[in-house]
Amino acid sequence: MFAEVSLSFYLPEHSTALSTFELPKKQLQFTALPLTALQACEEDESRHPVVIMYQGKPAGFFVLHHGPCISPFTENPNALFIRALSVHPAYQGKRVAKRAMLALPGFASVHFPFCNELVLAVNEKNFAAQQLYFKAGFQDKGQRRAGTIGIQYILQLPLASP
What we know:
By secondary structure, the protein is of the alpha+beta class. 27% of the residues lie in helices and 35% in strands. It is built from 5 helices and 7 strands. The model has no long low-confidence stretch (mean pLDDT 92).
């Protein structure tokens, strides 16, 4: 039986669990810790923090971002950009991230009905994340951009129109 994975918008009661996130240096070079990403959300209402729940406990985190600020990654005004995905090391290897990414299209269609595409940037050296995203249905259409630590692949997941 598969363990329960669900998505929830960030609530203050998630703060304690998210504050315990520590990632290995190898992973930290590719993403932001939840509390750092939350600070950016407080300054920008087009960023929406999402908590990955595993068996009722916060196990991961990412941000959904929309609006003009995501134009370096997509020209689609109806896209949601995924930022700062992380899974607490205690929950890694349990398919939490994969199940979260598979649940994301449904979550997006409910909470962001204008959305017709999910977009993300993944570093060319982050092979584990690339595999995750491809298994979740994201597509590489050849778009690249320079990131702070190297080339980023821009991956897309078209969603069914509302």
